[in-house]
What does this fold into?
Amino acid sequence: MMKMSKLTNESKKKIEDLVKKLNHHCYQYYVLDSPEISDSEYDGLYRNLKQLEERTGYVLPASPTQRVGAPPLDKFEKVRHTEPMLSLDNAFSHDEIKEFDKRLKRFLKSDDDIEYTVEPKYDGLAIELTYKHGLLKRASTRGDGNEGEDVTLNIKTIQEIPLYIEGQHIPNEIDIRGEIYMDMNEFEALNRERQIQGEASFANPRNAAAGSVRQLDSSITAKRRMHLACYGIGASQNANFNSQWEFVNWLKQHRFPVPVHMGLTNGITNVIELVTDIENKRSTFSFEADGVVIKVNDFDLQHALGMKTREPRWAIAYKFPAHKGVTRIKDIIASVGRTGTITPVAFLEPVSIGGVTVSRSTLHNWDEIERKDIRIHDTVVVERAGDVIPHILSVVKDKRTGHEKQFTPPAKCPVCGSSVEKVDGGVAFRCIGLNCKAQAQEHIKHYASRSAMDIEGLGNKNVELLFSTGLVSHFVDIYSLRKEDLLKLPRFADKSARNLVDAIEKSKKTTLSRFLYSLGIPHVGEYAARLLAKHFREIEDLFYLEPDTVMEIKQIGEKIADSIAQFFNDQTNLETLRALRRMGLKLSNPDYDDKSIQHKPLDGLTFVLTGTLPEPRKKIETYIDSLGGHVSGSVSRKTDFVVTGESPGSKFNKARSLGVKTISYEEFTKMTEQ
Ligand code: IVH
It folds into this structure.
């Protein structure tokens, strides 16, 4: 195990200062978007802290190093909310907002103007953050309102969420509520990447945020840039807030991100003005807002108004009208993707919906065409609601002329004529042709793309050109391209041809993980490619692989393992790889981690930790995990060892009564050295 040095007062102080400093800069960067130091200065401080923590074993729970690196979970634990997380009643027009105000006045038997706050309604995922003595103890999803899931490890990877609340008079306990959301730009980038990897895209930013938070492996969440807007308080102990406005301002002063464009005003006419203001500004927001939440400001008044069944009486969500437009379908085509999936795409007469011109709509599956009875030349209602990808809502059947044509799924691939097989329970189709041109072209695009082999100058347009002229019909052909061939093509001049040939040459030196990803093996995205590179030193080590060998990699499931094994047992594929080697492909492998495979002395053993141990628990857990072992929170007959520190808890007694072996920390470290 790592050698530790003694913790001196000096290093303790240094660690505490660094944690404070880094959290300050994190806030400046992520919440205020106004960094005071450069990225490399930040990285320097972070490295400094990490080294000190490793040397001394002194790790503060609020240290930024604690945001990442937790081992994946088996499942999420359930969490009961101390106070239920409610939903909101909706208003769909300004009149309904006025109705709401009237209702409250009737209930209060008073005609006095009510003070309200107005804030955008973020289209994301509601979350509760539980702070005890200022430290973030737990983050949970809303679930059914009473019981959610413990997503603490994932939420900690979101940099703008404070790990502790700094300052005077911090409540002993406080549940802070807010919305986790993804910016539209991030959402679109994520979907683009998923498309390249042959994964299903998320329908809207809300699904993307929810999917990212509900990941058992927090390292995936860490890769998605997500945000938080805090707008509510749950249970608390000695917190003393009088109003929503006061509370949100307190949050803001304590480094919590809060909704943009929050307003405070008196009387419903002014509320409607603020609502309209937010509605007008909506298109400039970086995030998707699906409405405005109007809340009674005063907490005493909120209390007096109380609850209906599942909603508070004191708040309402005004929902923006969805962006809809009516247009005609010019044609529906079957489009073939890289992995052979055939998707119906409707070409529309261009129509402006909420400021965006829409001329295409992807019909997610064939089922939808049948269910909605969508035909070519139909007049249709197209919606762009929270959904960035416009979708066809319904057919205006009154407008049918009798000239509409039904569209049936093709029995043969529209590009290569091969047979088509049903996948995903019959709602999707895939071309099984090995030499399908559509697949081949998409494959080459993927191979050359930035996140794959990164061949500069070989973007989609140039791939299409090279493919149509027959110069490149498989990605291997890229390496035979000569400057003279390129010069014959309309898009190339001397310099651009030379640059492309140079870029191709340069791309021959790459890493194994990048190359594996570029191969476009179904279900192998960047993450799986990196896992493979971690476990296999050379590409040749993957040749003739058995699925079971791949399954030894913990994070890889059966579907991916089968796909990888199938690829590396195919003679044509192996020939292609050998040919690439002969053409000068050089693969380095910085990801390879021989220790992780060769030295697994704790393989299959289950440990339980109890008492005060000489090192932070998280660290021991990660260490056990890396050596093939598993740490469980409670002792059972299945437990192999209980590692016992100073003043052990009830787990020690339970181990004794069940006859489970208890060992000291020293004995444990000896086991790892065998
Ligand atoms: S207040 C009782 N404020 O909308 C008050 N909710 O439809 C409950 N939401 O579950 C929430 N932005 O997930 C509130 N500024 C905001 C909000 C907001 C988004 C979500 C939240 C809630 C749902 C209710």
Q: What stands out?
A: The pocket of 2-(butylsulfanyl)adenosine is lined by residues 86-88, 119, 121-122, 126, 142, 179, 231-232, 259, 293, 312, 315, 317 (CB under 6 Å). The chain is about 35% helix and 20% strand. The CA atoms of residues 174 and 236 lie 4 Å apart.
